[in-house]
Amino acid sequence: MNTILVTGVTGNIGSHVLFELLFDLYSKKEKAQIYVLIRKQRDISARQRLWDEVFTEQLIPKKIAPFYKEYVTEYIKIIEGEINNFTIPEEAGNSLIVYHLAASVNLSNTEKARNEIAHVNYNNTQAFFEAIKSRTKKLVFVSTAFSRGEIAGKITDDYHSVVNFDFRNFYEAYKMKVEKLILKIAKENDFSCTIARPSVVSGRLIDMPKYVSSRYIVFYSIGEFFKKMKKTYPEMGKIRMALNMEGGLNIVPVDYVAKGIIRASDSKEEQLNITLTKNVPIRYIIYSILSKCDVEMELVPDEPKNKTTMEKIFYKTIGSQLLKYSTSKKHYFESKLIRKLLSDIEEPDMEEHFKKVYDFAHDINFNNANITLEPNL
Protein backbone atom coordinates (compact mmCIF):
# COMPACT_ATOMS: atom_id res chain seq x y z
CA MET A 1 0.00 0.00 0.00
CA ASN A 2 1.43 3.35 -1.08
CA THR A 3 1.76 6.27 1.31
CA ILE A 4 1.38 9.59 -0.48
CA LEU A 5 1.89 13.22 0.53
CA VAL A 6 0.36 16.00 -1.55
CA THR A 7 0.80 19.76 -1.12
CA GLY A 8 -1.18 22.47 -2.87
CA VAL A 9 -4.46 20.51 -3.04
CA THR A 10 -6.54 23.68 -2.69
CA GLY A 11 -5.03 24.92 -5.96
CA ASN A 12 -6.33 24.09 -9.42
CA ILE A 13 -3.78 21.43 -10.41
CA GLY A 14 -3.50 20.07 -6.86
CA SER A 15 -7.24 19.44 -6.55
CA HIS A 16 -7.22 17.54 -9.84
CA VAL A 17 -4.21 15.48 -8.76
CA LEU A 18 -6.25 14.45 -5.71
CA PHE A 19 -9.23 13.56 -7.91
CA GLU A 20 -6.96 11.40 -10.08
CA LEU A 21 -5.44 9.65 -7.07
CA LEU A 22 -8.89 8.73 -5.75
CA PHE A 23 -10.02 7.53 -9.18
CA ASP A 24 -6.87 5.41 -9.50
CA LEU A 25 -7.59 3.71 -6.17
CA TYR A 26 -11.17 3.05 -7.20
CA SER A 27 -10.46 1.78 -10.72
CA LYS A 28 -7.51 -0.38 -9.67
CA LYS A 29 -9.24 -1.57 -6.46
CA GLU A 30 -6.20 -0.48 -4.43
CA LYS A 31 -5.72 1.16 -1.07
CA ALA A 32 -3.40 3.99 -0.01
CA GLN A 33 -2.82 6.50 2.72
CA ILE A 34 -2.99 10.00 1.19
CA TYR A 35 -1.71 12.79 3.43
CA VAL A 36 -2.67 16.29 2.31
CA LEU A 37 -0.85 19.29 3.76
CA ILE A 38 -3.24 22.25 4.10
CA ARG A 39 -2.81 25.43 6.09
CA LYS A 40 -5.71 26.81 8.06
CA GLN A 41 -6.93 30.31 7.24
CA ARG A 42 -8.07 32.55 10.07
CA ASP A 43 -10.99 30.62 11.57
CA ILE A 44 -11.24 28.07 8.74
CA SER A 45 -9.65 24.71 9.57
CA ALA A 46 -7.65 22.68 7.06
CA ARG A 47 -10.44 20.08 7.01
CA GLN A 48 -13.07 22.69 6.24
CA ARG A 49 -10.91 24.11 3.44
CA LEU A 50 -10.63 20.64 1.90
CA TRP A 51 -14.41 20.43 1.62
CA ASP A 52 -15.03 24.10 0.79
CA GLU A 53 -12.32 24.52 -1.85
CA VAL A 54 -11.60 21.06 -3.28
CA PHE A 55 -14.60 18.77 -2.94
CA THR A 56 -17.20 21.28 -4.12
CA GLU A 57 -20.18 20.01 -6.09
CA GLN A 58 -19.36 22.21 -9.08
CA LEU A 59 -15.76 20.97 -9.36
CA ILE A 60 -16.18 17.23 -8.73
CA PRO A 61 -15.53 15.15 -11.88
CA LYS A 62 -18.42 12.82 -12.68
CA LYS A 63 -16.12 9.82 -12.61
CA ILE A 64 -15.55 10.13 -8.83
CA ALA A 65 -18.97 11.53 -7.86
CA PRO A 66 -20.47 8.17 -6.75
CA PHE A 67 -17.72 7.25 -4.29
CA TYR A 68 -15.51 10.23 -3.41
CA LYS A 69 -17.08 10.97 0.01
CA GLU A 70 -16.46 7.43 1.19
CA TYR A 71 -12.92 7.47 -0.22
CA VAL A 72 -12.05 10.83 1.32
CA THR A 73 -13.08 9.49 4.72
CA GLU A 74 -11.22 6.22 4.28
CA TYR A 75 -8.00 7.21 2.53
CA ILE A 76 -7.28 10.93 3.05
CA LYS A 77 -5.57 12.19 6.18
CA ILE A 78 -5.10 15.92 6.76
CA ILE A 79 -1.91 17.50 8.07
CA GLU A 80 -2.68 21.04 9.16
CA GLY A 81 0.37 23.25 8.71
CA GLU A 82 2.53 25.36 6.41
CA ILE A 83 4.99 23.89 3.91
CA ASN A 84 7.81 25.29 6.03
CA ASN A 85 6.25 24.19 9.33
CA PHE A 86 4.52 20.81 9.55
CA THR A 87 4.99 17.34 11.02
CA ILE A 88 4.70 14.11 9.08
CA PRO A 89 3.13 11.48 11.36
CA GLU A 90 5.44 8.59 12.28
CA GLU A 91 2.97 6.05 10.91
CA ALA A 92 3.45 7.56 7.42
CA GLY A 93 6.73 5.66 7.27
CA ASN A 94 9.87 6.44 5.26
CA SER A 95 8.87 5.53 1.69
CA LEU A 96 6.65 8.45 0.76
CA ILE A 97 5.53 9.31 -2.75
CA VAL A 98 5.42 13.12 -2.63
CA TYR A 99 3.61 15.45 -5.03
CA HIS A 100 4.72 19.00 -4.28
CA LEU A 101 2.48 21.59 -5.93
CA ALA A 102 2.15 24.39 -3.37
CA ALA A 103 3.45 27.65 -4.87
CA SER A 104 2.68 31.30 -5.49
CA VAL A 105 1.87 32.21 -9.10
CA ASN A 106 2.79 35.88 -9.33
CA LEU A 107 4.01 37.04 -12.74
CA SER A 108 4.76 40.63 -11.71
CA ASN A 109 8.24 42.11 -11.84
CA THR A 110 7.87 44.35 -8.80
CA GLU A 111 10.08 44.15 -5.72
CA LYS A 112 7.03 43.02 -3.75
CA ALA A 113 6.53 40.13 -6.20
CA ARG A 114 10.20 39.20 -5.95
CA ASN A 115 10.00 39.03 -2.15
CA GLU A 116 6.82 36.94 -2.24
CA ILE A 117 8.23 34.50 -4.81
CA ALA A 118 11.59 34.21 -3.02
CA HIS A 119 9.88 33.56 0.32
CA VAL A 120 7.08 31.19 -0.77
CA ASN A 121 8.53 29.44 -3.81
CA TYR A 122 12.15 29.18 -2.68
CA ASN A 123 12.71 29.59 1.05
CA ASN A 124 9.55 27.76 2.16
CA THR A 125 10.03 25.06 -0.47
CA GLN A 126 13.62 24.56 0.66
CA ALA A 127 12.32 24.05 4.21
CA PHE A 128 9.76 21.56 2.86
CA PHE A 129 12.48 19.54 1.12
CA GLU A 130 14.49 19.44 4.35
CA ALA A 131 11.45 18.03 6.18
CA ILE A 132 10.77 15.24 3.66
CA LYS A 133 14.21 14.35 2.28
CA SER A 134 14.92 11.41 4.62
CA ARG A 135 11.41 9.94 4.26
CA THR A 136 10.86 10.13 0.52
CA LYS A 137 10.97 7.35 -2.08
CA LYS A 138 9.74 9.43 -5.03
CA LEU A 139 9.18 13.16 -5.45
CA VAL A 140 7.22 14.78 -8.26
CA PHE A 141 7.96 18.49 -8.09
CA VAL A 142 5.59 20.64 -10.15
CA SER A 143 7.44 23.50 -11.78
CA THR A 144 6.47 25.39 -14.96
CA ALA A 145 7.22 24.88 -18.65
CA PHE A 146 8.21 28.56 -18.66
CA SER A 147 11.17 28.05 -16.30
CA ARG A 148 13.19 27.85 -19.52
CA GLY A 149 12.56 31.58 -19.97
CA GLU A 150 12.19 33.32 -23.32
CA ILE A 151 13.39 31.16 -26.23
CA ALA A 152 12.63 30.72 -29.93
CA GLY A 153 12.16 27.44 -31.78
CA LYS A 154 11.99 23.94 -30.30
CA ILE A 155 11.89 23.51 -26.52
CA THR A 156 12.90 20.04 -25.30
CA ASP A 157 12.39 18.59 -21.81
CA ASP A 158 16.04 19.10 -20.89
CA TYR A 159 16.41 22.58 -19.39
CA HIS A 160 19.36 21.83 -17.11
CA SER A 161 22.02 21.45 -19.77
CA VAL A 162 21.34 25.09 -20.69
CA VAL A 163 23.70 27.77 -19.39
CA ASN A 164 21.99 31.04 -20.32
CA PHE A 165 18.40 31.90 -19.43
CA ASP A 166 16.31 34.94 -20.33
CA PHE A 167 13.66 34.91 -17.61
CA ARG A 168 10.54 37.04 -18.07
CA ASN A 169 9.80 37.39 -14.35
CA PHE A 170 10.82 36.27 -10.86
CA TYR A 171 8.34 33.39 -10.97
CA GLU A 172 10.23 31.72 -13.82
CA ALA A 173 13.66 32.46 -12.34
CA TYR A 174 12.89 31.02 -8.91
CA LYS A 175 11.20 27.93 -10.35
CA MET A 176 14.45 27.12 -12.15
CA LYS A 177 16.42 27.82 -8.98
CA VAL A 178 14.24 25.35 -7.06
CA GLU A 179 14.51 22.75 -9.84
CA LYS A 180 18.29 22.72 -9.51
CA LEU A 181 18.07 22.64 -5.72
CA ILE A 182 15.73 19.65 -5.57
CA LEU A 183 17.75 17.54 -8.02
CA LYS A 184 20.79 18.14 -5.81
CA ILE A 185 18.85 17.17 -2.64
CA ALA A 186 17.41 14.07 -4.34
CA LYS A 187 20.87 12.90 -5.36
CA GLU A 188 22.34 13.53 -1.88
CA ASN A 189 19.47 11.67 -0.19
CA ASP A 190 19.09 8.87 -2.71
CA PHE A 191 15.48 9.31 -3.74
CA SER A 192 13.99 9.53 -7.22
CA CYS A 193 12.77 12.91 -8.47
CA THR A 194 10.81 14.01 -11.53
CA ILE A 195 10.30 17.69 -12.30
CA ALA A 196 6.91 18.04 -14.00
CA ARG A 197 6.42 21.26 -15.95
CA PRO A 198 2.90 22.19 -17.06
CA SER A 199 2.45 25.13 -19.42
CA VAL A 200 -0.55 27.51 -19.11
CA VAL A 201 -3.41 25.58 -17.51
CA SER A 202 -7.05 25.74 -18.63
CA GLY A 203 -10.27 24.07 -17.56
CA ARG A 204 -10.89 20.38 -18.18
CA LEU A 205 -11.16 18.88 -21.65
CA ILE A 206 -11.17 15.14 -20.86
CA ASP A 207 -13.23 14.53 -17.72
CA MET A 208 -16.84 15.57 -17.37
CA PRO A 209 -18.13 18.11 -16.73
CA LYS A 210 -15.79 19.77 -19.23
CA TYR A 211 -14.27 23.26 -19.09
CA VAL A 212 -14.43 23.51 -15.28
CA SER A 213 -11.43 24.78 -13.33
CA SER A 214 -11.05 25.72 -9.69
CA ARG A 215 -9.45 29.02 -10.74
CA TYR A 216 -9.70 31.11 -13.87
CA ILE A 217 -6.38 32.93 -14.21
CA VAL A 218 -3.70 33.88 -16.79
CA PHE A 219 -5.52 34.16 -20.16
CA TYR A 220 -8.89 34.11 -18.40
CA SER A 221 -7.81 37.27 -16.56
CA ILE A 222 -7.80 39.23 -19.81
CA GLY A 223 -11.46 38.44 -20.32
CA GLU A 224 -12.36 39.07 -16.71
CA PHE A 225 -10.73 42.52 -16.94
CA PHE A 226 -12.46 43.55 -20.16
CA LYS A 227 -15.82 42.10 -19.16
CA LYS A 228 -15.80 44.30 -16.05
CA MET A 229 -14.50 47.35 -17.92
CA LYS A 230 -17.06 46.99 -20.72
CA LYS A 231 -19.87 46.93 -18.17
CA THR A 232 -18.51 50.04 -16.45
CA TYR A 233 -17.42 51.87 -19.61
CA PRO A 234 -19.61 50.64 -22.50
CA GLU A 235 -18.08 53.26 -24.85
CA MET A 236 -14.47 52.31 -24.06
CA GLY A 237 -13.42 52.40 -27.72
CA LYS A 238 -10.82 50.35 -29.54
CA ILE A 239 -8.09 48.54 -27.59
CA ARG A 240 -4.68 48.00 -29.19
CA MET A 241 -3.35 44.61 -28.11
CA ALA A 242 0.39 44.01 -28.41
CA LEU A 243 1.34 40.53 -29.61
CA ASN A 244 3.65 38.56 -31.82
CA MET A 245 1.50 37.88 -34.91
CA GLU A 246 3.32 34.56 -35.45
CA GLY A 247 3.39 33.60 -31.77
CA GLY A 248 1.39 31.08 -29.82
CA LEU A 249 0.65 30.02 -26.25
CA ASN A 250 0.83 26.44 -25.03
CA ILE A 251 -2.40 25.90 -23.11
CA VAL A 252 -3.02 22.49 -21.55
CA PRO A 253 -6.20 21.26 -19.80
CA VAL A 254 -5.92 20.74 -16.06
CA ASP A 255 -7.13 17.12 -16.16
CA TYR A 256 -4.45 16.25 -18.76
CA VAL A 257 -1.86 17.90 -16.48
CA ALA A 258 -3.06 15.95 -13.43
CA LYS A 259 -2.88 12.64 -15.31
CA GLY A 260 0.67 13.48 -16.39
CA ILE A 261 1.72 14.30 -12.83
CA ILE A 262 0.33 10.99 -11.50
CA ARG A 263 2.10 9.03 -14.25
CA ALA A 264 5.32 10.91 -13.48
CA SER A 265 5.51 9.11 -10.13
CA ASP A 266 6.36 5.92 -12.05
CA SER A 267 8.75 7.65 -14.46
CA LYS A 268 12.53 7.55 -14.31
CA GLU A 269 12.76 10.85 -16.23
CA GLU A 270 14.16 13.76 -14.23
CA GLN A 271 12.49 16.39 -16.41
CA LEU A 272 9.04 16.20 -17.98
CA ASN A 273 7.21 18.98 -19.80
CA ILE A 274 3.43 18.55 -19.54
CA THR A 275 2.64 20.44 -22.71
CA LEU A 276 0.70 19.92 -25.92
CA THR A 277 2.43 19.43 -29.26
CA LYS A 278 0.59 22.43 -30.72
CA ASN A 279 0.35 25.98 -29.40
CA VAL A 280 -2.81 28.05 -29.77
CA PRO A 281 -2.07 31.07 -32.00
CA ILE A 282 -1.97 34.16 -29.80
CA ARG A 283 -4.04 36.09 -32.36
CA TYR A 284 -6.83 33.53 -32.03
CA ILE A 285 -6.70 33.66 -28.22
CA ILE A 286 -7.04 37.45 -28.11
CA TYR A 287 -9.68 37.51 -30.84
CA SER A 288 -11.79 34.84 -29.07
CA ILE A 289 -11.61 36.61 -25.71
CA LEU A 290 -12.18 40.20 -26.80
CA SER A 291 -14.95 39.37 -29.28
CA LYS A 292 -16.76 37.52 -26.48
CA CYS A 293 -16.34 40.64 -24.33
CA ASP A 294 -17.71 42.75 -27.20
CA VAL A 295 -14.55 44.85 -27.25
CA GLU A 296 -13.24 46.35 -30.47
CA MET A 297 -9.55 45.57 -30.91
CA GLU A 298 -6.55 46.24 -33.07
CA LEU A 299 -3.59 43.85 -33.04
CA VAL A 300 -0.25 45.65 -32.89
CA PRO A 301 3.36 44.38 -32.60
CA ASP A 302 4.36 46.59 -29.64
CA GLU A 303 2.80 48.20 -26.60
CA PRO A 304 1.25 51.52 -27.74
CA LYS A 305 3.02 54.68 -26.62
CA ASN A 306 0.11 57.13 -26.90
CA LYS A 307 -2.33 55.04 -24.88
CA THR A 308 -5.99 55.76 -24.33
CA THR A 309 -7.21 55.85 -20.73
CA MET A 310 -8.48 52.28 -20.96
CA GLU A 311 -5.23 51.08 -22.52
CA LYS A 312 -3.26 52.73 -19.71
CA ILE A 313 -5.32 50.84 -17.13
CA PHE A 314 -4.92 47.53 -18.96
CA TYR A 315 -1.17 47.76 -19.56
CA LYS A 316 -0.54 48.94 -16.00
CA THR A 317 -2.48 46.03 -14.46
CA ILE A 318 -3.05 42.64 -16.09
CA GLY A 319 -1.23 43.62 -19.28
CA SER A 320 2.00 44.26 -17.39
CA GLN A 321 2.16 40.57 -16.44
CA LEU A 322 0.98 39.01 -19.69
CA LEU A 323 2.65 41.26 -22.29
CA LYS A 324 5.92 39.30 -22.22
CA TYR A 325 3.99 36.13 -23.10
CA SER A 326 1.80 37.62 -25.84
CA THR A 327 4.90 39.08 -27.52
CA SER A 328 7.10 35.99 -26.97
CA LYS A 329 9.24 34.59 -29.77
CA LYS A 330 7.71 31.85 -31.89
CA HIS A 331 8.40 28.52 -30.17
CA TYR A 332 6.98 25.05 -29.62
CA PHE A 333 7.39 22.29 -27.04
CA GLU A 334 8.67 18.94 -28.26
CA SER A 335 6.23 17.07 -25.93
CA LYS A 336 7.57 13.59 -26.84
CA LEU A 337 8.03 12.33 -23.27
CA ILE A 338 4.57 13.33 -22.07
CA ARG A 339 2.94 11.77 -25.15
CA LYS A 340 4.81 8.54 -24.44
CA LEU A 341 3.65 8.64 -20.81
CA LEU A 342 0.03 9.39 -21.79
CA SER A 343 -0.04 7.32 -24.99
CA ASP A 344 -3.38 5.75 -24.04
CA ILE A 345 -5.01 9.18 -23.73
CA GLU A 346 -5.85 11.17 -26.86
CA GLU A 347 -4.04 14.49 -26.91
CA PRO A 348 -6.59 17.31 -26.61
CA ASP A 349 -6.83 19.83 -29.46
CA MET A 350 -6.78 23.09 -27.54
CA GLU A 351 -7.09 25.33 -30.59
CA GLU A 352 -10.27 23.54 -31.63
CA HIS A 353 -11.78 23.81 -28.15
CA PHE A 354 -10.33 27.10 -26.93
CA LYS A 355 -13.43 29.21 -27.62
CA LYS A 356 -15.65 26.82 -25.64
CA VAL A 357 -13.07 26.68 -22.83
CA TYR A 358 -13.00 30.46 -22.54
CA ASP A 359 -16.72 31.06 -23.16
CA PHE A 360 -17.65 28.68 -20.34
CA ALA A 361 -15.65 30.70 -17.79
CA HIS A 362 -16.96 33.99 -19.20
CA ASP A 363 -20.58 32.82 -18.99
CA ILE A 364 -20.29 31.82 -15.32
CA ASN A 365 -18.51 35.14 -14.63
CA PHE A 366 -15.31 33.24 -13.69
CA ASN A 367 -16.99 31.90 -10.56
CA ASN A 368 -17.97 28.25 -10.11
CA ALA A 369 -20.73 29.26 -7.69
CA ASN A 370 -22.63 30.33 -10.83
CA ILE A 371 -22.57 26.85 -12.36
CA THR A 372 -26.01 25.27 -12.60
CA LEU A 373 -25.71 21.75 -11.25
CA GLU A 374 -27.28 18.81 -13.03
CA PRO A 375 -29.92 16.96 -10.96
CA ASN A 376 -27.83 13.76 -10.73
CA LEU A 377 -24.99 15.67 -9.06
Automatic annotation (TrEMBL):
This is SDR family oxidoreductase. Residues 6-261 form the Thioester reductase (TE) domain. Gene3D superfamilies: NAD(P)-binding Rossmann-like Domain. InterPro entries: FAR_NAD-bd, Lipid_A_modif_metabolic_enz, NAD(P)-bd_dom_sf. It comes from Aquimarina rubra. It comes from the Bacteria. Pfam families: NAD_binding_4.
